Amino acid sequence: MENGDNFEAELTRKVGALKRAAIDAAIAGGAFNRFTVGKDSYEMTAWMSGTTKLLYKVTRPDENGSGGGEMTITEDPGGNRSAYDAMARSQSEKIKARFDSIRKEIDDIIKPWKTLPDPSAIANDCDAYAANVTAQLASSAEQIKIPDTKTLPEPDPDTSSVDTSSATYRPHGPMGTRLSISRPMNELKGSAMDTFSKTFQDKLPLIVKDLCYVSGIHCCTLAAEYGFFKKAREKVIEMVTSATDTFNKIAKTKGSVDSTMLLNVISWGLSILALPWGGGTSLAAATGVLALTIVKDTTSAPPERKASVSSYEDMKKELEESFKALKEELKKGEKAVSSTLKENHTRARDDKKADFESASLHLVPSPIVSGANELQMDDDNVNKVSTQLLSVADLLEEAAAGIGKIPMRVHRDGFIGLGENGPSSEYDSFGQMLHELLLDLKWQIEEGVINLKLALNDFKEQDESSRAALEDNASAIKAGSGVDPWDDKRQTEKDMHRDPYFADRDDHDPHTPTQDPSRQELGEEMKRRKDEGRPSKPKVINNC
After folding, report:
1. Which string of DSSP letters, residue by residue, matches 408-446?
2. Is the dihedral of CA 273, 172, 440, 470 positive or negative?
3. Residue 252 and residue 322 in contact, taking contact as beta carbons nearer than 8 Å
4. Count of CB atoms situated within 10 Å of the CB of 36
5. Cβ–Cβ < 8 Å for 46, 56
6. 209-236: b (≥16 Cβ within 10 Å) or e
7. Which helix (H) or strand (E) is 508 found in, with range?
8. DSSP secondary structure string, 125-154?
């Protein structure tokens, strides 16, 4: 991956050479221009009355395209020096003005493209997203097939496909291990445990898997933008270099020359967008219910511009049109990214209407309402299950926090692509939904742990107080977390109805499970709340 910070400096150098070549073509090219290009000057001879030879010399701009335009006129044999000097001074002003006009015309064409975003910064963001979000949610290697952007190969020139077999893949995190609660769960028996197991042993891993895939789609839109702008920067340098060569040919040949430009800048980004690790062209969610799609458009070949040019004006127009075509190509690519984000966001919203069985992206509450008739429950195995699940909640919280730290940094001149910020608005909206889905799932786990502990308390105590505490908790779970991923409003952990056990006692250490209250603590606290007339339901926390 190139050092994107060098782009503007390199382009500035290249544009300097382009300006000089353009001026060369303007003064020496075309059917009626008789100047020849020397190292430091343009020269032309003319005869007066068939006997007097006049030598016209005009200083050439330097290698950066600056300066030039001073004319001198020399008569052979010598004659009226002052008259020729006056004529030269008058012509010099006109020539300098023309040179300045050409330089401005070139600057006007190139200026927007100096603002292309740094692809290396986008790549770093993509890699950070893969490591801090998707890898945190992944339970297996197949769920985190996001290659390091620095190891992505160039696409096949014929098919635009990307062979990622040689790419480096990052490892997944501990999510799979932490989701494995079967051993202690097998020691807890009864109808309530069947309900809990169905929710947190069977359904929860599927939800996390689907959220992992969704994060992969979100991540690969960053990768696609990286691909677009890496190629766009390369193409801009190539176009400027090619135009410089064409201007030089016009100045040298004084005739017609061919200009060809292949605008192949988005195929790589589109192929990255459609990589298997991003879901391919069709992502079947783990439950088989929600179908998330990757929108791609690689059906049309990249445009190729061919033209025959014989003057500065001809080539200037062709350069303008080539950059307009490049702009449209980037716009097409970013529309694919925008469509991918919009369509998947729309499809994800449909999950709101799903029931417990069919939901793919959120856990529909199914709390335990009584523990009195359970066959087997014990503190040791309940605590093992609780600690394990709360460690899952920690990973969800870390992944949610990671999303908010990774924007789509694609700001550029509004002339280019989809405008100043490209598809970043759609990226932010999709990311906010995923962020809230993760927070909501974390809350479901925390409340599920309290639910399990209160069920154990009811199993042990089997009194009115223990039953009422469990019922109150079940009602709180059904009321929801206070975070609505589907409403397109920005919500954070501060909007959550976190239970005081976690809000007040959480040590906020991401390397340890969230505070895990004992069933005795829970039972006693619930009784105190009832005796004091305090609400037993979770509360909105404003200082998380």
Report:
1. ------TTSTTSTTTTHHHHHHHHHHHHHHHHHHHHHHH
2. positive
3. no
4. 15
5. yes
6. bbbbbbbbbbbbbbbbbbbbbbbbbebb
7. none
8. HHHHHIIIIIHHH-SSGGG---B-GGGPPP
Which residue, among 410, 438, 373, 397, has the nearest Cα to 191 in the 3D structure? 373
Beta-carbon contacts of 140 under 8 Å, excluding residues fewer than 6 positions away, are 172, 176
Q: Does residue 544 contact residue 494 with C-beta atoms inside 8 Å?
A: yes
Q: Are 294 and 339 in contact (CB under 8 A)?
A: no
**3-state secondary structure at position 56:** strand
- The ranges assigned to domains in the chain are 7-113, 116-540
Give the integer Cα–Cα distance in Å for 444 and 451.
10
Measured CA to CA, the distance from residue 222 to residue 164 in angstroms comes to: 17
From its phi and psi, is residue 30 left (phi > 0), alpha (psi between -120 and 50) or beta? left
User: How far is residue 68's CA from residue 510's CA, in Å, rounded to a whole number?
Assistant: 65
Nearest alpha-carbon partner for 167 in 199, 125, 123, 211? 123
Instruction: Please list the residues that pair with 44 across neighbouring strands.
Output: 56
With 0-12 / 13-18 / 19 or more C-beta atoms within 10 angstroms meaning exposed / middle / buried, residue 179 is buried
Classify residue 434 as left (phi > 0), alpha (psi -120 to 50) or beta.
alpha
* Cα gap 253→107, rounded to integer Å: 25
118/8 Cα distance (integer angstroms): 10
Going residue by residue through the chain, which has 544 residues, state the pLDDT in tens, using 9 for 90 and above.
344 468 999 999 999 999 999 999 999 887 667 799 999 999 998 877 667 788 999 999 999 999 999 999 888 766 667 778 888 999 999 999 999 999 999 999 999 999 999 999 999 999 999 999 999 999 988 787 777 888 887 777 666 667 777 777 788 899 999 999 999 999 999 888 898 999 999 999 999 999 998 998 899 899 999 999 999 999 999 999 999 999 999 998 877 888 888 777 888 888 778 764 444 334 444 444 455 666 655 445 667 788 889 899 999 999 999 999 999 999 999 999 999 899 889 989 999 999 999 999 999 988 888 877 777 889 999 999 999 999 999 999 999 999 989 999 999 999 999 999 999 999 999 999 999 999 999 999 999 999 999 989 888 888 888 888 888 888 889 999 999 999 888 988 888 887 777 766 655 555 555 567 788 788 777 777 777 766 555 554 443 3
Q: Report how far residue 332's alpha carbon sits from residue 321's, in angstroms, rounded to the nearest whole number.
A: 16
Under the phi-then-psi rule, with left for phi > 0, alpha for psi from -120 to 50, and beta for the rest, what region is 370?
Answer: beta
- Rounded to whole angstroms, how far apart are CA atoms 127 and 309? 45
Q: Give the whole-angstrom CA distance, residue 495 versus residue 432.
A: 14
Q: Cite the beta strand spans of 290-360 per DSSP E.
A: 291-293, 304-309
Asked, as a colleague might, if the bond just before 407 is cis with ω within 30 of 0, I would say no
> CA–CA separation, 162 vs 152, rounded Å?
8
For the chain, the C-alpha Rg in angstroms (whole number) is 34
Measure the CA angle with vertex 304, ends 412 and 25; round to 5°.
80
Kindly state the tokens that stand for 188: 């807890």
